[in-house]
Amino acid sequence: MSFISLGISKSLVTALERMNLTTPYPIQTEVIPAILKKKDILGIAKTGSGKTLGYVLPILMKLQKKEVMKDRHIQVLVMVPTRELAAQVNSVFLKFIHESALDIKTLAAFGGASINPQMMAMRNVNILIATPGRLLELVSVNAVHLSALKIVVLDEADKMLTAGFAKEMDQIFALLPKHRQNLLFSATLNEEIHSLEKVLLHDPLVIRIEEESDPIELITQSAYCIPEEKKGPLLRYLIKSQDMKQVLVFTSSVARADRVADKLHKNGIDAKSIHSKKSQGARTDLLRAFKQGMLRVLVTTDLLSRGIDIEFLPFVINYELPRSPKIFIHRIGRTGRAENFGEAITLINPSEEIHFAVIEKKMKKRVTRIACESFDLSNV
Asked: Of 130, 200, 243, 265, which has the most beta carbons under 10 Å away?
């Protein structure tokens, strides 16, 4: 199967080839032809399965046929739960628009940043990627109009419905034109998604991509048993001794993320923290630097882990355990993505052993313990 056989234009396929993307993922094989045929879609596929490209490519195909539009009347709306995901999806659109020299304008709009520049940038926008709250703000000041919408995408709908957006989503649905194409993507199919399906979708094509194997099977896991006060030296030792080049470190709080990053930096390891207390501009710059390999270590919290999607991330380190096994699995799932192997390391103090055993039981996987007595941590 090729992208050409799915109906994607030669110019976009050429752009794909320049990015070494030649074979569609299963979700793309199913979704692309259906979107081009104007079908409503309910796509159930895990994060990292390739769904973003699955809707970006056919949407760009559809918008190549230029229509005369009133200013600030967008054609495509992509709704996402976080500002990081909004920026990420926008970057995918921009990459293909640039590579294929398409006359299409996109904008990512989200809170945590001044609304005025976003209002001004809305002129002649075709595709708007937005978080629900900021979208409603833009509508309220007539910076954007939804009456001419052709396509509505809900990306990571399961996270939106569990993140306190229900009231805002109801307000947005009331503003949408009756005749439109709806594309709903979710990692899970739960009761909330079924309810949303009934409201949003018209005779949808349901596409469910089952994973051939547990995604954590692609991840090599190990755990180091160490007293709490020695976690910092051990973290520095592991990064230096294994010459780790791209490392995502998880902590349990903003304050701890700052302290860990600061200590790494003071010991000659290029590291920064990223969390909700940072400005949106700073977070965007840090993510870009980390993804491009210009920043060696990024220390974060679970709050921001949803927006950190890197296809070839080699290392994840749990400096502290999360509250639940589900969050732990999500954390380590930042590596071992898109059929690429990754390594997840967990630092455990004696008091965390019981909790980690619960996590192992949930994963149905025993993690190899590594003793640290032989490590020389005195000079790191």
From this structure: 130
Q: Rounded to 5 degrees, what are φ and ψ at 25?
A: -75, 160
Domains 10-208 and 215-370 share a fold: yes
Give residue 211's pLDDT band: very low, low, confident or very high (50, 70, 90).
low
Reported CATH class of domain 215-370: alpha beta
DSSP assignment of 248-291:
EEE-SSHHHHHHHHHHHHHTT--EEEE-TTS-HHHHHHHHHHHH
Residue with tokens 């949803």, as numbered in its chain: 306
pLDDT value, residue 199: 61
- Of 44-53, 71-80, 168-177, the range with the highest mean pLDDT is 71-80
pLDDT at res. 345: 96
> In which element (H, E) is residue 225 found?
strand 219-225
Q: What type of residue sits at position 358?
A: V
Per domain, the residue ranges of the chain are 10-208, 215-370
* H or E, element range at 328: helix 325-332
CA distance 242 to 297: 13
Q: pTM (2 decimals)?
A: 0.67
pLDDT at 114 over 80: yes
The answer to whether the beta carbons of residues 186 and 155 sit under 8 Å apart is no
Q: Enter the CATH code of domain 10-208.
A: 3.40.50.300
